[in-house]
Design goal:
two-stranded parallel sheet, signal, CA_dom_sf, about 25% helix, about 325 residues, 12-stranded mixed sheet, Carbonic Anhydrase II, about 25% strand, alpha+beta
Amino acid sequence: MRRRCNTLAIVIAPILICALTVLAQDFGYEGRHGPEHWSEDYARCSGKHQSPINIDLVNAVEKKFEKLEFLNFHVKPKNFQMTNNGHTVLVKLTYDEDKVPSVRGGPLSEKTLLGYQFEQFHFHWGENDTVGSEDLINNRAYPAELHVVLRNLEYPDFASALDKDHGIAVMAFFFKINYRSSDGYEKFAKLLPQIDRKGKSVNMTEPIALGEYISEYLDSYYSYTGSLTTPPCSEEVTWIDFTEPIDITEKQLSAFRLLTANDDHLRNNFRPIQPLNDRTLYKNLVESPIYNMGSIPFVNAANAAGRWKPHFVTALLPGFGLLTLLRATVFRGF
């Protein structure tokens, strides 16, 4: 009997250890597994060069970077899989080997001449329109943020690049509420109810190119060296935060907020900002910037629509007045 019990203990012990390890390394955004506790299981989360940060426009150092090159961003993937992993909506794309999107130039050229290859993209959002983005602009938040994760091509896979200096880069794009969005997000949001719970995945039957999910204007951006914003919080990650937001509708953003993880709504899945410490925040020097980051980052689409027409009419009134004057002048023979 004792031998049978010992045998049973030998079999069960590894299972229990494995289960406890998984529980210990789980993470979330509130309570016992929230960001303030991440460093208890992931030491790097207490590092000095962590992300996200507050992008203080006054202290940003202007620098003229090489032009960023986006390769294969127009190519439609062979497969487009969306997964609710309990922390975010994770999107994996499959391509032919020579068609995988990649980026080179800009701040990335200082890390490697080979460029960085696309790995995945995912999202962070808040429970209302005043919170959601991870990086802040002058302490103001956007309602959501897209992260396009890239791997340094000097490394054969994501795992090997993860622990290396400059092995990973993240392109960040903010979202703003508007009355319409791109076709990509219209189709994307319609699939979200199919992954309403943790562990669910869905494939997009007619995949759309990666370029349809990012901003159109890609010359204006900020860059700094930071970390992953989720455990294991690996550092020496090159961040590029683009200044032109992506349009998304209130209805589409609401579809993200309805997702659940462990029977709770998956919302406010953003890490609080971290100290900049001794790092330098750079702003790419653009000769004629067309977007002003000093403006309010989020808007109420209904109010904006209501304000636009009167402003438009007001702008036209001087023109109508001038036309009337000209007509009167002609008829009077001047």
